[in-house]
UniProtKB/TrEMBL annotation:
Keywords: Transferase. It comes from Thermococcus gorgonarius. Residues 80-204 form the Glycosyltransferase subfamily 4-like N-terminal domain. InterPro entries: Glyco_trans_1 (IPR001296), Glyco_trans_4-like_N (IPR028098). This is Glycosyl transferase family 1. Pfam families: Glyco_transf_4, Glycos_transf_1. GO terms for molecular function: glycosyltransferase activity. Residues 212-379 form the Glycosyl transferase family domain.
Length: 403
C-alpha cells in the first residue's frame, strides 16, 4: 500500500491500550500522523485507595495510568489525555457526549491539531462526540462499533436517541461482526454506509515457539493437558461455567489443568467456587499476566477456552489462532464468523457447562493441524486489518470531496 504522508487522522477512543493501541500503531505506518483523544475522569483516581470492593475494582480500569500505554509508541502517534469531571457513568450520562465534543473542540483549537478524518471507537460517548466534531470541522467521521450484546442493549435502553443520531450522521460505520448489522440498520443506519471489518492481532507479540520451551519457561508439567483462558474476571466472560465444565472434565481424565489469566472483581467469588468444588489442584487463577508472558502461555497450552456469555469480536481469539492454538468457546458475537470450521475450533452455546466440557474433551483428544490454524489466522493480522481501514479513509474522503 502506498503511504499517504499527508493524511492526518484524529482517533477518538476510550483508551490507548490493547486492541486500540495495536490498530492505531500499525495504521500510523500508512499515514502522516495520528492524534488520539481520550477523555479521563479525575474522580476515578479515588479507586486507588480501595481494594476488594466490586465498584472500585471496576473503576480502576479507568484511572489515568490504566488508560494509556505509551510503550513502543510510534513517533507519529500523539496521545492526548483530556480531563473531564462528571458523576454519572459514561453509559448512562446523556450529557457526556456533548460535554466531550465541547472539551475536545476547545482542546483541538488550542493545540492546533490538524486532521482530515475522524475515526472513533464505540457509539457513545466517543462516536457521538466524533459526529459533533465532524460537523464542526467539516471532516468525515468513521465509527467502529465494538459493542457486545449487553453493551448495545444498555445503549439502546439508556441512550437510544443519542445512539440513533450517531449512527445516522456518521459517514461510515464499521461493525466488527456481520450478524447484527441488520440491527443497526433497523435503528437508522444507512445500509450503504455500514460494513464489516473484524478485529485482529499483533504477530509481533504472539508467535510460534516450541511448546516444550514454553512449558519449561512456565514450569508446567511436560505431559499434562493444558487449558489456557485469558479474560477479565467479569460475569460476561463466563468463568463460572468454565469451572463447572472442568469439574465434569476431571471425572473423565485427571491430567487436565486450567490456567486463567486476568484480573477483575470476580476473583474472590471464583476462588471460593474453585475451592468449594475441590478443584484447586487443577484450576489456577493467574491474575495479571504480563504481555511478554502471554505468548508463552499460548504456546504452552493444548487449547484456548473462552466461555463468554457475550462478545463483540474478541481479540484474544485471534491471538490464540495466530500461534496455531485451537479455540474452544461459545457461539456468541462474532466468534462463529471466525471459527467457521472444526479445523480451527469447537463451539457450544453460552452458559452450558455440559456442552463445554464435552467440547473440551474432544479438543484434547483431537489431532489438530496447528500450522493450518496459524495460516488461517494470518488474514487477521493488524497489518491487513489496518490496510482495510486506511483504504476506507481514502474512499470516504474521496466521497466527501476532501481528497
Amino acid at each position: 500500500m502506498q503511504v499517504q504522508k499527508d493524511l492526518n487522522v484524529l482517533v477518538i477512543a476510550h483508551r490507548y491500550d490493547a486492541f486500540i493501541k495495536e490498530l492505531v500503531d500499525v495504521t500510523s505506518r500508512y499515514v502522516a500522523r495520528v492524534d488520539v483523544l481520550i477523555h479521563y475522569n479525575p474522580l476515578s483516581e479515588i479507586s486507588n485507595y480501595f481494594s476488594g470492593i466490586l465498584y472500585f475494582e471496576h473503576l480502576k480500569r479507568f484511572t489515568k495510568q490504566n488508560l494509556v500505554n505509551t510503550k513502543r509508541r510510534p513517533p507519529n502517534v500523539r496521545v492526548h489525555l483530556i480531563p473531564v469531571i462528571y458523576l454519572l457513568p459514561d453509559g448512562r450520562n446523556k450529557e457526556l457526549g456533548d460535554k466531550l465534543a465541547k472539551k475536545f473542540e476547545e482542546y483541538i483549537v488550542k493545540n492546533k491539531i490538524q486532521f482530515d478524518i475522524i475515526h472513533a471507537h464505540f457509539t457513545y460517548p466517543q462516536g457521538y462526540a466524533a459526529v459533533k466534531l465532524g460537523q464542526k470541522f467539516n471532516v468525515p467521521v468513521i465509527i467502529t462499533l465494538h459493542e457486545n450484546g449487553p453493551h448495545l442493549n444498555s445503549i439502546l435502553s439508556n441512550l437510544k436517541d443519542k445512539a440513533i443520531y450517531t449512527w445516522k450522521n456518521a459517514d461510515k460505520l464499521v461493525r466488527v461482526t456481520k450478524r447484527d448489522i441488520p440491527l443497526f440498520i433497523q435503528y437508522g443506519a444507512d445500509p450503504s454506509k455500514i460494513i464489516n471489518i473484524p478485529n485482529g492481532y499483533n504477530p509481533e507479540k504472539y508467535y510460534l515457539i516450541p511448546s516444550e520451551t514454553a512449558r519449561e519457561k512456565l514450569q508446567l508439567e511436560k505431559n499434562a493437558k493444558i487449558i489456557f483462558n485469558l479474560a477479565r474476571l467479569y460475569p460476561e466472560k463466563g468463568h463460572k461455567y468454565l469451572i463447572d465444565a472442568m469439574s465434569l472434565v476431571l471425572k473423565k481424565r485427571q491430567d487436565v489443568y486450567c490456567y486463567v489469566g486476568g484480573t477483575g472483581p470476580l476473583k474472590g467469588e471464583l476462588e471460593k467456587k474453585i475451592n468449594k468444588q475441590n478443584l484447586g489442584d487443577h484450576i489456577r487463577l493467574l491474575g495479571y499476566v504480563p504481555g511478554d508472558q502471554v505468548n508463552y502461555w499460548m504456546n504452552a497450552a493444548d487449547i484456548f477456552v473462552l466461555p463468554s456469555l457475550s462478545e463483540g469480536n474478541p481479540t484474544v481469539m485471534f491471538e490464540a489462532l495466530g500461534v496455531g492454538l485451537p479455540f474452544v468457546g461459545t457461539a456468541v458475537g462474532g466468534v462463529p464468523e471466525i471459527i467457521t470450521s472444526e479445523d480451527y475450533g469447537l463451539l457450544c452455546p453460552p452458559a452450558d457447562p455440559e456442552c463445554l466440557a464435552k467440547k473440551i474433551l474432544i479438543a484434547l483428544e483431537k489431532e489438530w493441524d496447528r500450522e493450518k490454524i496459524r495460516t488461517y489466522a494470518e488474514q487477521f493480522k493488524w497489518q491487513h486489518i489496518s490496510k482495510k481501514y486506511v483504504e476506507l479513509y481514502y474512499k470516504v474522503l474521496t466521497q466527501y470531496g476532501g481528497w
